[in-house]
């Protein structure tokens, strides 16, 4: 059976869920945070060491300003309320993406990372203002700057996920079948699971079912 060290998730469907059930995209985002908490707990139960969550993409800046402000207020409240709990549960937080936010948000993100830096049970990579294409450009620029050879090892070395194993599997909720500029380099050999449920409806049972399916897959990596 395959072991699971790293799970990546595109948490898609919050806005659609909010419109469908609450007539508000923002209330869908708020509900989606409850699912985040459930999946973090389930990851710890399953002894997963790395969880990468796609929270806000470089393309999401195209959304209405009110929705963006609501999302960052949610993030701010979540971090302020949860960092002490992260420390109790030995959860480490790492932000992947470019921190081009307000000083207040940047300071909060940096403090959250510093406060949890010694924790070892679970590492959560929170992808904020993240786009895989810009991440690859960032890597290549650093290779050139440091006068290194362009090879797989050096490309991986300068990614935001340096020193973190590539995801074993990717889950995307929301019944959408695409990668949306997420971890394009790191997902080269990951198993991909597209889930019909919108993110707020996704639960621990759904998560465990996918993990069990993954464990039984024969993974050849080019071999027979």
Protein model, in words:
- With 224 residues, the chain is α/β, with parallel strands linked by helices.
- It has one domain (6-216): Decaprenyl diphosphate synthase-like (Undecaprenyl pyrophosphate synthetase, 3-Layer(aba) Sandwich), CATH 3.40.1180.
- It contains 7 helices and 6 strands.
- It has a 6-stranded parallel beta sheet.
- The chain is globular, with a radius of gyration of 17 Å.
- The protein starts with 5 loop residues before the first strand and ends in an 8-residue tail after the last helix.
- The mean pLDDT is 96.
Structure at a glance:
The protein is built from seven helices and six strands; from the N terminus they run E-H-H-E-H-E-H-E-H-H-E-E-H. With 224 residues, it is an alpha/beta fold.
